[in-house]
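Example 3.2
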Amino acid sequence: MPATPAPAVTHRPDERFDEFLLAAAETHPDHPAVVEYADGAERVTTFRGLREAAERYAAELDRYGLDVGERVMIVSDTSAEAVALVLACSSRGLPFVPVSPETPAERRETIERSAEPALCLFADGEPGTAVGHGRFGPDGIEVPLPPVRRERRRRAVTPGDTAYIIFTSGTTGRPKGVVMSHRSVVAFYRGMIAEGFVSVGDRVGSTSPLQFDFSLLDIGMALGSGAAVAPVPRALLRWPTRFLKVLRVTRATHVNGVPSIWRQSLRHIPDQLAALTELRGVLFCGEEFPLGELRHLQRLRPGVRLINCYGATESMAASFAEVPDPLPDEVTHLSIGNGHRGTDILLLDPEGAPVREEGVVGEMYLRSPALMTGYWGDAGATDAVLVADPLEPRSGQRLLRTGDLAFRGADGALRFCGRRDSQVQIRGNRVEPAEVQRRLLAHPDVREAAVVVYEGPAGDAELSAFVVLGDGPAGTAESDLRAFCLRSMPAYMAPSVVRIVGSLPVNHHGKTDHRRLRAQLVTDAA
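Structure, written as C-alpha cells:
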C-alpha cells in the first residue's frame, strides 16, 4: 500500500517573513528544514531545531535594545545558523542586510556606510573592533563593543515593515539597496508556492550566495512548502565532481541556480549527472540557458521538470514557465510565461501603448503585490522605476518599470529578448546584443557565446563576440562564425570580431562577466 502523503503546510493571512518560513514547525516539526553538506555527510536541522535556534538568537538580539527598523548586516554564506539569524531579525522587526564573505572589503564598507546597521555580524573571519561588529554561530551572538541603546519608538512589527535590504550593482557604480517589506516577500512566496514546484519532504539545492535574492527565493520555496533547503558550499560549486557529490549526499530533489552551474558537469561528467536519480526539478534564472545545453540536460535526465524563472531583485521574481520536454527543435526563445499567480505583466511600446500583436517587442511593466518599497536612500531612482499605472495613472497604483524587453509568441506567452538600456547604436542602427548572441548559439558547433560592445579604432561602437565551441571535431573558424551571422542579419549587426575561447569568465553570481571580456579587448588592443 502506498504511503500516505504528508499534509501540506498551513499558512495564516498576513504572516511576517519569519512566520511564513517557520509555519512548518507547527505541522512538521521533525522534518528537515536545512540540510548541510559537511565532511562528506549531511547535517540536518529540523524545523523544530531551526525555530529554537531562531528564538535563541532573537533573545540575544533583545539584549542590544534595538528598535523596529534598525538594520543588522549579516556577513555569511547560507547555513542553518544564518537562516536562523535571518528569522530572528525578522521576528524583531530588524531588517537584515545579507553580504557575502567573498565581497571585497571596500564594497562591504560602502554597503555598511549606506545601510548604517546597528549590528554587523560575521559568521567567519575577524570582525574587527568597530562598535556593533561581532560574531554569530552555534554558541550565539558576541559583540565586544555593543551599540549605544536608543529610545524605542515602535511598539510592534507590522507586515508593511521592512524585512530585508539587498544591495545590488547600480548604474552609478555604487551598490543600490532594494528594500522589501514582509508583506511583499510573503506575497511573492505565496504566488511561487501556488505553482507547486516542491512539497513536504523535498530538498531544494541552493547554489546562490545569501546576498543574492535568488537564495531567499530558494529558502522561501523550501521552508514555505515544508521542504528543506540544501545550500551548496560556495567553494565546491566550481568543481563539477564535488558539486554533484553535494547533491547526492544531501539527496537534493530540486536544484535552483543560474544556468552556468550545470555547464562543467554537462561537458565533463554527463554520466554522473545522469545518475542523479533523485533529481526531479531544476529552476534556473539570471541569464539565458543555452538551448544546446538545455537539450543535453533533458536527454541525460528525461522527465526532470525544468522551470525558467524570470524577474528582478525589485520583485524577487515575476514569472515561472515550464520548459517543454523535449524542447522542440524550432524553439529559439524560451517562454517566460505571463507572470506568477497574483501578478500581471503589461507589455508597452515606446509610446506607452499596449502591445497586443504577436512578435512585436515591447517593454515589460510588472503589476504585483510583491514589489519593493523602493531603493534605500534614493527617492529619485525609486521614482524612475516605480511608476504610475500607465493605463490609469489617476489610481495611484505603482507598477515596476522593468527595463526588460519581450514579445508574445503564438501561444500568448512572453519571450524575453534583452534590456531596454542594453540596446546600442551601431552605425546609426539600434542593435540588441542578445539577439546576436542567440544567432551565434544557433550554430551547431557553438556551446556558449557572449557579445559585448566596445569602442573601435575610429571611436565608433562595435560588437565583439566571444565563443566557446562544443566537443565535436575542430574545424570551425572565427571567420566561419561571422559569416554565419551575416547569413541572417545585416552587416551592422554582425560582430566585427569573433574570438574562440576555452571558457567564458563568470562573476561571483555565476553570470557571464561582461566587464572582464571588455577589459580583455582593451588589453589586447594596447
